[in-house]
Amino acid sequence: MEAVILAIELIGTFAFAVSGATAAVKARLDIFGTIVLGATTAVGGGVMRDVLLGITPPVMFIKPIYVLIAFITSLAVFLLEYFHAATRPMRSVLYIRVINYFDAVGLSVFIISGCNSAISVGYFDNAFLVLFLGTLTGIGGGMLRDILICKIPNVLRKKVYAIAALAGAAVYYIMLYIGSDEIASMICGMAVVFLLRMFAFHFEWDLPRIPEDDKSV
Amino acid sequence: MEAVILAIELIGTFAFAVSGATAAVKARLDIFGTIVLGATTAVGGGVMRDVLLGITPPVMFIKPIYVLIAFITSLAVFLLEYFHAATRPMRSVLYIRVINYFDAVGLSVFIISGCNSAISVGYFDNAFLVLFLGTLTGIGGGMLRDILICKIPNVLRKKVYAIAALAGAAVYYIMLYIGSDEIASMICGMAVVFLLRMFAFHFEWDLPRIPEDDKSV
Amino acid sequence: MEAVILAIELIGTFAFAVSGATAAVKARLDIFGTIVLGATTAVGGGVMRDVLLGITPPVMFIKPIYVLIAFITSLAVFLLEYFHAATRPMRSVLYIRVINYFDAVGLSVFIISGCNSAISVGYFDNAFLVLFLGTLTGIGGGMLRDILICKIPNVLRKKVYAIAALAGAAVYYIMLYIGSDEIASMICGMAVVFLLRMFAFHFEWDLPRIPEDDKSV
User: Fold this and answer.
1) Chain C nearest CA to A181, separation (Å)
2) pLDDT of residue A213
3) What does the alpha-carbon distance between residue B177 and residue A174 come to, in Å, rounded to a whole number?
4) What does the alpha-carbon distance between residue C85 and residue C81 come to, in Å, rounded to a whole number?
């Protein structure tokens, strides 16, 4: 089971690093900036969670495998884009779709592992804290990515992203709370995040917001 | 006394959440983003203070009433703006003035409670730390709000805001230091913040800065 | 030796504060904002390092000399710019060059002191953590400066800055690791940072990035 979780976490790290490095290349960061942005996207949520929980130094320093994966991934994205003849196929619909699946897998697993961090330091009774930190672990890296390239964080504006995260965290927590099997709870929580993200992506779900062209606001 | 402080803190939370949610709607965040920005504005300063003091998890997780108030307030702001016929009256001068009063009340009380947090973990002898963290508690949430919507923080540019905060913190600290009654010190500190803000608002006080049209800089 | 380190750290604090305050004036912050930005640039990297290491409150509160130097420096920059007749000479090539030397000195010494902080709380065996936090101490303040004025952090885009920082940290760490004299290690680490920065500045070295006018990305 541990190996499965680790494998999925590494897939998530990979997907998050791709998203960060791709955004970095678009913002014309250099090779160093691309690696920093990829790694920040991948591990930033976990670092914020650890700081808020008082876990110092954060887990990223103790288990450098995540940063290493993010580093290699971001470097590869940069090099592919830099020698750009090779990258045009990467802009295909298939590529975007695959990355999106990976991102949904990563989001699912980071949310569960975020909840588990909060629970493992003794806050199982504080549902608000567990759900908040689980969600932050999933979405925090992407928020930092956007802030660093001076964009309003996507998660505050687009699609059903944070809500999917929160819903999955809630399902996981409630199942644990009523005494379900831990593995079953994990699978259900992750499935909720993954499916909500997939539905939101395919059906282009958006949360309500005031249209850009409504000038009265 | 405690009940009075709590009541004023809740008014401040409400006012800060209104300011965050209003900014969110203007930046076209969705309903989730609006709630996040409202809550961040309301509790962000306190979270930064707690992290710097090593109080983990931050108070917002232990006393969720503040986040709850911010959540409800932000949701209400979003819904009023979304069904916008109802909101035009809210853009009136009266509305802006009332929110501004509330904001000044909130700033006053958060500064005092920020100073108290620093004092309560044993740093009364470090005046710099107490004043810094008191001020940060008051202005930090608004800074995060502006960063998240990609604006230069207002407090760095406009009006006598941070200086009012700092002055109130200083009055409170000095009065405690010379042995004044705690409640009297609180009232004086809060009054200084509130009055400076009101004067700055009514007389349009600004701190010196180099004019936009001075191109030689 | 301690006195030498302190003197160099104060020169670095001065240079970083000048860079922050100059950016603040250009972004039309007011006098308060200029001081905040100067101080943030000077001590922000150290604060992030301390929070990640669990050193609370951060060193800036315990040794306020750094903030004091940053405060005075930023105030002086603002006043010189405000009464701007006096400042035109400051825009000379000489001025920029001198500040750049100072900045390189500051970067050198902050990186070594960042590594030392990590080592002194017991993480000598974790090379990744030491190098990461050493580099962050050097570049973190400048990143915060840019984020606060809504610019993409320069260090992610321009010149050989972070790489110089990382290289110096690595030299210092490796020399300590193989048992070199501490002072010799410091001098070598600092020299690497300083020289790389000087070369990058004079020869306009840049890391690879995708050109602005390549619209295919």
Assistant:
1) 34
2) 64
3) 49
4) 8
Q: What is the pLDDT of residues A95-152, one digit of tens each?
A: 777 778 888 888 998 999 899 999 999 999 999 999 999 999 999 999 999 999 999 9
Residue pLDDT, tens place only, A47-83? 999 999 999 899 999 999 999 999 999 999 988 888 7
To the nearest 10 degrees (0 to 180), the angle between helices A31-53 and A65-82 is: 150
* Confidence tier at A12 by pLDDT (50, 70, 90): confident
Residues of C in contact with B210 (CB under 8 A): 25, 28, 81-82, 84
- Record: contact B157-C30, CB cut-off 8 A: yes
> B3-27 burial by CB neighbour count: b if 16+ within 10 A, else e?
eeeeebbbbbbbbbbbbbbbbbbeb
The tokens describing C103, both together, are: 């900045």
Q: In a 3-state reduction of DSSP, which class is residue A30?
A: strand
Residue B88 has pLDDT above 60, yes or no: no
Minimal C-alpha gap between C175 and chain B (Å): 33
CA angle, B131 as apex, B127 and B137 as ends, to 5°? 145
* Predicted pLDDT at C133: 95
Sign of the C-alpha dihedral computed for residues A135, A141, A145 and A150 taken in this order: positive
Q: Which of B26, B29, B79 to mutate to test the interface with A (most CBs of A within 10 A)?
A: B29
For residue C29, give the nearest of B129, B143, B209 by CB distance.
B209
What is the C-alpha separation between A199 and B85, in angstroms, rounded? 32
* Residue ranges in chain C whose pLDDT is less than 50: none
Establish, for the pair of chains A and B, how many residue pairs have beta carbons separated by less than 8 Å: 80
The mean pLDDT of chain A is: 87
All residues of chain C having their beta carbon less than 8 Å from the beta carbon of residue B125 are none
Predicted model pTM: 0.91
Exposure string for C1-20, b = 16+ CB within 10 A, e = fewer: eeeeeeebbbbbbbbbbbbb
Residues A162/B32, Cβ–Cβ less than 8 Å: yes
Sign of the C-alpha dihedral, residues B133, B139, B144, B150? Answer: negative
- Among C27, C61, C62, beta carbon nearest to B152: C27
CA dist., res. B25 & res. B74, Å (int) = 10
In this structure, which long-range contacts are made by residues B94-99, counting pairs with CB atoms below 8 Å and at least 24 apart in sequence? B99/B15, B99/B18, B99/B19
Four-CA torsion B111, B113, B114, B117, nearest 10 degrees? 160
Q: Do B28 and A132 touch (CB under 8 A)?
A: no
A77 to each of A146, B35, C118, how far by Cα in Å? 18, 34, 31
Give the list of residues 6+ apart from residue B80 with CB closer than 8 angstroms, or none: B86, B87, B90
Domain coordinates in residue numbering, chain A? 2-203
Containing A178, the helix (H) or strand (E) segment is none
- Contact residues, chain C, for B212 at CB < 8 Å: 28
B115 in Cβ contact with B130 (< 8 Å): yes
Three-class SS state of A209: strand
What single-letter amino acid sits at A180?
Answer: S
> What ipTM was reported for this prediction?
0.87
- Residue type, position C179, single letter: G
